[in-house]
Amino acid sequence: MDRSVAVWVFAALSLVVLMALPLGWLGWLSVSGEHGATLAHYRDVFTDLALRKALWNTVVLAFWVGLVSVALGAPLAWLTARTDIPGRGLIRGLVLASFVTPPFLGAFAWVMLAGPNAGILNTLWRSVTGSREPLLNIFTMPGLIFIVAIYTFPYVYIMVANTLALIASDLEEAAAILGAGRLTVARTVTLPMVLPALASGFILAVLQALALFGSPAILALPAGFHTVTTQIWSLFQFPPKVEQAAAFSIPLLLATALLLQVQKRVLGRRGYAAVGGKGGQRRTIPLGAWRFPALFACLAVMACAIFLPYGVLAKAAFARAWAQPLSRDNLTLGNFTFTFFEYGATRDAIVNTLELGVMTACVGAVMVAVLSYVTNRRLVVGHQLVAFLALAPVVVPGVVLAVGLFIAYTRPPFVLYGTLWILFLAYLTKEMPVGYAQADATFRAIPADLEDAGRVLGAGRLRILKEVTAPLAKSGIIAAWCFIFIGVIRELSASILLFTPSTKVMSVVIFDLKEEGQFGAISVLGLVMLGLTFATVALVQAALGRDVLGTRK
């Protein structure tokens, strides 16, 4: 018997435990009562007016974020994939920056930009017009939709841009030869071919909006309304109502699972979009006089997502008073001193974040490499189930996962709450799908012939994996490591329910600093987080030879 079978089985069982234990406890507690199974917790949830209002707010938020994301992402994808717009590489790089920016950090920045009282844009508006009313108020539902959408539209951009890259220009050119204008060609030829990608991107944007905690907590709570994720968080405040939180989590879990199933079916019908095959030509469309207006429009979107938020974070990091002009008297390094040497939680949080990031990325990269190898080479019975479970956490919002982990690991035999281990399990589970997807693509590209030759020569599976397959898959495994590390650095949704004073991470400290009004310290930590993220992205690009959005260098 091949001794490596034990390794494959152990990896598969570990995956089952990661998913089954917290979600099993979540489902059980949602229906458990003093006298056995009950639906009373669900009745309490769905008859509570405040909880129903939070559910409706979430539906409104997710729907409009999906629409706005399509309205932003699809035109940008078409412009960069099909036209001669100047600075296509710059636009792709800025979309990438938006993609990896933590949405909650963007929300903090826009509080400084568009807060109704001291927001910089509103202050400037009042000084120019003399108006007493603010130009913008970010603490509204439209403000929340705007913030979530500018950091969610890259999902639509990626889907549409990658689809357009597969579509040859033959049909579009044929329509143009027959006298159709550019708008008619786009409406009757291009749009139907990319429609599945548009629908899939819309669903992914909706999923992101459903699962987010940080942006709603920063913008919706001060505005006086809840979403599902903030309402679940509030149910954990003293006195905690864990059973209601579990019951309120299940509908969100079912909604995300249903949407992902719909997205999978829609994406599965995308094959007809690749008309013309790989050999078809993709000719650029000349924009003529519209080249620079189109570039300006793209840069305007990027200003909202990147230039203005990053600029105000940098300004606030070096300012005594962030709302005042950055004059010589207002310049200071005191925010750095306070953040790193006076505020007690910062250094421990940075250490915890880096420790969890490195540990999760290392364990996760090895685990997804083994699991993708198992599923691609069909080494265990039920390998399809293993593949399903590896991708299943993508349907579990971070807050829902945190509720399940809290329930599972605050009672014997595994009491992990209050330690870094519960955060490690949360991060490992939550980031598993992105790492697995990268590793799976890598192992699919490696033919099994070399491994078969090694087995003919008497080598076991583990030795072949170590000496033959792993070196060939090195860049893909490094990329999986980097993706997992980035996910841990920017994670807030699960952390906010599972941290204790001794296990705070950077995202939680930033959230705490917001409650204390320490915008200078928030900006310093935000810049540190962005620096770590972009350094990791650079490592991804070095490993893959292409950017994170899938564009070859």
Supply the key terms.
MetI-like fold, mainly alpha, two-stranded antiparallel ribbon, 2 domains, 553 residues
Describe the fold and architecture:
The structure is a single chain. This protein has 553 residues and is mainly alpha-helical. The protein folds into two domains: 58-322, MetI-like fold (Orthogonal Bundle), CATH 1.10.3720.10; 339-553, MetI-like fold (Orthogonal Bundle). 73% of the residues lie in helices and 1% in strands. It contains 25 helices and four strands. The chain has a two-stranded antiparallel ribbon with strand order 1-2. Strand 3 and strand 4 (414-415) form a beta hairpin. Helix 1 (5-31) packs across helix 18 and helix 22 runs antiparallel to helix 25. The model is unreliable at 270-279 (pLDDT under 50).
Shape: globular
What is the alpha-carbon Rg in Å? 25 Å
**How many helices does DSSP assign?**
25
Unreliable stretches covering 5 or more consecutive residues: 270-279
β-strand number: 4
**Spatial arrangement of strands, main beta sheet:** 1-2
Topology as H/E string?
HEEHHHHHHHHHHHHHHHHHEEHHHHHHH
CATH superfamily of the largest domain: MetI-like
What is the number of domains? 2
| Mean pLDDT metric | 85
Structural class: mainly alpha
Fold topology:
Blueprint: H1 5-31, E1 32-33, E2 36-37, H2 40-47, H3 49-82, H4 88-100, H5 103-114, H6 120-129, H7 141-150, H8 153-166, H9 170-177, H10 182-211, H11 214-223, H12 228-235, H13 242-268, H14 291-317, H15 334-342, H16 344-377, H17 383-391, H18 398-408, E3 410-411, E4 414-415, H19 420-444, H20 449-456, H21 461-472, H22 474-489, H23 495-498, H24 506-516, H25 519-544
Antiparallel strand pairs: 1-2, 3-4
